[in-house]
Design brief:
22% strand, single chain, alpha+beta
Length: 120
């Protein structure tokens, strides 16, 4: 089975463009540049996730059963079936692993290192 092409949600592109235009109109050039650099870094990490190269870490955005928000996890598999995340939970007697479908993972996890500095 062929791997699908990475997708970017249209709403995300529109939101980023709108935020960038608004920030530039307020003469916030440095903040706009930081936001663009952050977006490029996230795109690089998502490409690494898609190509399964290197270690890619995520964190939980919400409580997922025994997994508390902000818990770190490592992507251990990424294919057309979805994304397998092994959670880094101290004191756990066994590995905790979750499968996230491609069209749902953004509701539950985010790439580690994402920031909110450029959002308003």
């Amino acid at each position: 089975m062929e791997r699908e092409t990475p997708k970017v949600k249209l709403e995300t592109v529109i939101r980023l463009c709108t935020e960038g235009i608004e920030m530039l109109s307020q003469n916030k050039v440095e903040e706009t540049m930081n936001g663009l650099m952050h977006t490029l870094e996230m795109a690089r990490q998502m490409l690494a996730v898609h190509n399964s190269r290197g270690e890619v870490w995520v964190k939980a955005k919400v409580k997922l059963g025994d997994i508390a928000p902000e818990t770190r996890g490592k992507i251990i598999r990424n294919d057309e079936a979805g994304m397998l995340v092994q959670w880094n939970v101290s004191g756990s007697q066994r590995p905790l692993v979750d499968l996230f479908l491609r069209d749902q993972f953004e509701d539950y996890i985010e790439l580690e290192g994402s920031c909110n500095n450029h959002q308003h």
